[in-house]
Amino acid sequence: MSRYITIAAAQLGPIEKDHSRESVVERLIAMLHQAVSSNCKLVVFPELALTTFFPRWYTEDLAGHDHYYETSMPSPATQPLFDEAKRLGIGFALGYAELTEPGADGLQHRFNTTVLVERDGTIVGKYRKVHIPGHEDDEPWRPFQHLERRYFEESNEGFGVHRAFDGIVGMATCNDRRWPETYREMGLQGVELILIGYNTPIHYAPDPGQNALQGFHNQLCMQAGAYQNGTWVVGVAKGGVEAGVESLAQSCIIAPSGQIVAQATTTGDEVITARCDLDKCKDFKETLFNFDRYRRPEVYQRITSQKGVIEPPENPSN
Ligand code: ING
């Protein structure tokens, strides 16, 4: 049996500080139209797809940067995207900075969020980033900051999956893609399609030796996650040089075999597509990675009970 869906990864080039939300949404809609002309039913946009990557700037006054966040979704600026997608019968995933309503405690929360919207315009669900990278305080020795840990809380909601697009769909965000737990949590819920947006600066200040490996590590993680869980993975970049900082492009669509079936060739706005057979997941889920038959959770206890490394005791020296 086959269950085909044609999917677009809509890579974005840079969004500068002075670009309005409205101008960005026009770019998203232009790519939506390209996706429709390729018969796509789902288009995946990157992480923080409405603004520049603002965590590169330090601020004492977090609330002073609240204009980078959406307080509703759809928000006034994104409503035209929702309307056009619904009119055309295409779904989408969109990453944005979310500022919540005050809770019972009066506090608002900031998350790095992705919303998933069905072909009929209904909101399927939201995913809030779990693994928040970088640092919380100004580190002036860096050529630019990566202050996600100042601007976003870690979500405790984990990796839910949704029945949508005639399959089982999950989401993850940027740094999440480097962690095998991300994929396995969704793999254990039968995920068939994982949507991942990213902003990955090429320069990694704590260890610049990794700069030349950014493209390799991007593929390594997502291809392994796809294969080891028998799932499609769509990785979508905001790439190119934004505010003087170069970020990785190389958006790609990966089959459950782990093979890349489509890859961006530019570092700007670019739509790539693939016709994905969600039934291909079974080739892996029902054989080599038949979890029910072969997994050994009883010997994986450390995975959930322990956070950091506990080394074995030193050997006695005498
Ligand atoms: N970016 C990062 C990522 O995992 C990061 C974190 C920063 C990695 C700098 C490498 C260098 O790609 C996001 N947005 O999570």
Bound molecules: D-[(amino)carbonyl]phenylalanine
Shape: globular
The CATH architecture can be given as 4-Layer Sandwich
Give the termini distance in whole angstroms: 65 Å
Please report the number of helical segments: 8
Fraction of residues in H or I helices? 10-25%
Q: Strand share of the residues? A: 15-25%
Number of strands: 14
Largest sheet: 6 strands, mixed
CATH superfamily descriptor: Carbon-nitrogen hydrolase
- Briefly note the CATH topology name: Nitrilase/N-carbamoyl-D-aminoacid amidohydrolase
Q: Return residue spans where pLDDT drops below 50 for at least 5 consecutive residues.
A: none
Number of domains: 1
Overall average pLDDT: 97
Radius of gyration using CA atoms only: 20 Å
Going across the biggest sheet, name each strand in turn.
5-4-3-2-1-14
Question: Mind telling me the CATH class?
Answer: Alpha Beta
Specify the structural class.
alpha/beta
Order of helices and strands: EHEHEEEHEEHEHEEEEEEHHH
Please describe what this structure looks like.
There is one protein chain. With 318 residues, this protein is of the alpha/beta class. The chain is 21% helix and 25% strand. It has eight helices and 14 strands. The chain binds D-[(amino)carbonyl]phenylalanine (ING). D-[(amino)carbonyl]phenylalanine binds at residues 47, 133-134, 146, 174-175, 178, 198-201, 204.
Give a brief description:
Helices cover 21% and strands 25% of the residues. By secondary structure, it is α/β, with parallel strands linked by helices. The chain has a six-stranded mixed β-sheet. Strands 6-7-8-9-12-13 form a six-stranded mixed β-sheet, covered by helices on one side.
